[in-house]
Each structure stands twice: as structure tokens, then as C-alpha cells.
Amino acid sequence: MDDLGSFPEIRMRRLRQSEAIRSLTAETRLSADQFVMPYFVREGRGVREAIDAMPGQFRFSPDTLLGELEELIRAGIKAVLLFGVSGKKDARASMAAAEQGLIQKAVREIKKRFPELLVITDVCLCAYTDHGHCGVLTDSGSVDNDASLEILARSALSHAEAGADIVAPSDMMDGRVKAIRAMLDQSGFEHLPIMSYAAKYASAFYGPFRDAAKSAPGFGDRKSYQMNPANASEAVREAALDIREGADMVMVKPALAYLDVIRAVASAFPAVPVAAYAVSGEYAMIEAAAQKGWADRQAAVMETMTAMARAGARILITYHARQIAGWLQA
Ligand code: PBG
């Protein structure tokens, strides 16, 4: 760096004098194109139910979601990630792959009305199992990896048949990307991309989501399948395995406490799009501080999103996406 000169010839503050010069020289820029807005879909008609732990977020029945999506699209967001909040649960997660299931019906309605909207579906069993784990259980009550793969793959296929544009497995079973890719390819969906939750950590920041999705585990925790927050190199290995199994995009989740992991994965696989998921607890923290007047909502959201993009995330999944699109237009 020596040949770049030094003070007093060099003054770093020259490029910080005005908003115009700061934005002209910015290394990282955000665009509405890179955002994905997550939604919780529940059964029923005419429902728009507030989620206590996520002020400003709602559980929608498919019909009310259509109205919401119209506004989202008008704001400039082009992609959504859908979660089913199903009241129909059993030990084998039967509704996860049902043709007339909640998500399957919602996707069909959404794609009919908004064919251009990119619909990504979360593929997991936790919203459909009565015990709330992300896979089915063995007789002794542990999560049965290999028995879950077939159900996950059938669930992904049912989403594809309903019209989903991308499937996003979030269960963290070993081998699920391979099982899903094989099932999709056998069934004529060889063009359907997989966005894998490659590095998903066992995180305290999912608390509000489990309340929103009514998917908290009935016993124990998810530490036997989700990653240990202490590990970063392991995330690169997880991403490598998923890419080899057929993942087209890989996700790091949560985002804000894992910027080093986003950077590590993005640097290890520069040709693979990396998504960062700013999860429910990250949303709730900013909302709580903003409501108390302890943080400027817009500034805090834009700073954290810029940090995730700077760390190497090309795709940003956030419950603030709709608001961000409005701010980017202003
Ligand atoms: C389902 C799933 C979870 C999230 C996304 N998919 C919850 C979990 O693993 O417990 C969390 C998303 C969020 O907190 O915003 N397995």
C-alpha cells in the first residue's frame, strides 16, 4: 500500500465529503433485484393474523396473501420464500408432500395470478410433524436422517408440481440435496434450481419464527442436525457437499452473527451464488430497538444488509425486504 502515498498529499476524507461522492465511490450497492421476502402461509380464508414476536409481519391465508403480493411486486420485489404454517400435523409429516396441501395450493394460486413472481418454497418437515422436528423419528426418538430423505424429496417434488420456481431445503439432513435433485430429475424438473440452506446454525435467533410457524420442537433441540455456532470451516465443507449434490445456490443462516461464514463460503465458491438469511430474531431485534427509539430502523436495516452484501452475499432474504424496496425507490 506504500506507493499509494500518505498524508498530507493523501486525505481519505476527500471521498467522504458529500452523499453524492460517498455513493459514487461505494464498494457495495443494494438493489431490489437481490431481495427475497419471506411469508408465512396458513389455512383458511380472509386471514391476516399478526405475529406477536415479529411486529409488522403476518400469517396470511392464500387469498389475503395475493393482495399483499400485489403491493410487494409494486414495491419492486421479485422473489418470495414461502413457509407453510399447517394445522395438520402427524408423526410422518403426511401433509408435507400432499397435492392438496397448504403450500401446494397457495403456490398454484400465486403462480396463476403472478406468473412472473419468483416463488421459492421452504422444504422442511418441522411444520408438518406433530413433534416439531425437521425429520421423522426412529423408534428411540432420534431424528432418522435416511428415512426423512424420501419424504423431503417427495415434498420438494410436490412444490415443483404446484409451480414453485426454486425449492429451498432447510432441514439439514445429510444427503437431502442429492435425494431432491434425483427426484426432481426423474420427474421432468431437471431445470428447477435448488437453493440449499447449506450452513444453517442451531441458533437462538430463530425464536420468533418458531412462534410464527408454530414449529418449535416438542422435545429436545435441533443441535443434532443444525450446525454448531463455533464452526466456520465446517460451513465451507457443508457448502461443498451441497454443491456436489446439486445445489445451484447456497445459503448461510442466520446472517448478521455469521458474516465471517458468508465471506468464507463466498470466497471458497466464487461462482456459486450465496444467499444470506437475516432471520426472525434479527428482524425482531431491530424492530424492538426501533420501537423504543433506541435505533433508527431504516439506517440499522440498511447498514446490516450492506454488511451482508459486503461479506459476499448476492441474495438477501429478509422480512424487511418490502420496506427496503420502498426505501431504495425513495
Ligand atoms: C425450518 C426453518 C426455520 C427457519 C427457516 N426454516 C426454523 C428452524 O430451523 O427452527 C428459521 C427462519 C427464521 O428464524 O426467520 N426448519
Summary of the model, kept short:
This protein has 330 residues and is of the alpha/beta class. 38% of the residues lie in helices and 15% in strands.
CATH architecture: Alpha-Beta Barrel
| CATH secondary-structure class | Alpha Beta
Secondary structure class reads alpha/beta
- Count of spatially separate domains: 1
Q: Say which molecules are bound, naming each kind only once.
A: ligand PBG
Give the proportion of residues in helices: 25-40%
Show unreliable segments. none
CATH homology superfamily = Aldolase class I
- Written as H for each helix and E for each strand, in order along the chain, the element string is HEEEHEHEHEHEHHEHEHHEH
pLDDT averaged residue by residue: 97
Tally of DSSP helical segments: 11
CATH topology: TIM Barrel
Globally, the shape reads globular
β-strand amount: 15-25%
Topology overview:
Elements (H helix, E strand, L loop, with lengths): L18 H6 L10 E8 L5 E3 L7 E3 L1 H14 L3 E7 L16 H12 L4 E6 L21 H18 L3 E4 L6 H11 L8 E6 L6 H7 L19 H13 L3 E5 L5 H10 L5 E5 L1 H12 L5 H15 L3 E4 L2 H9 L1
Parallel strand pairs: 1-3, 1-4, 1-10, 4-5, 5-6, 7-8, 8-9, 9-10
Antiparallel strand pairs: 2-3
Helix pairs in contact: 2-3, 3-4, 4-5, 7-8, 8-10
Ligand PBG binds next to helix 6.
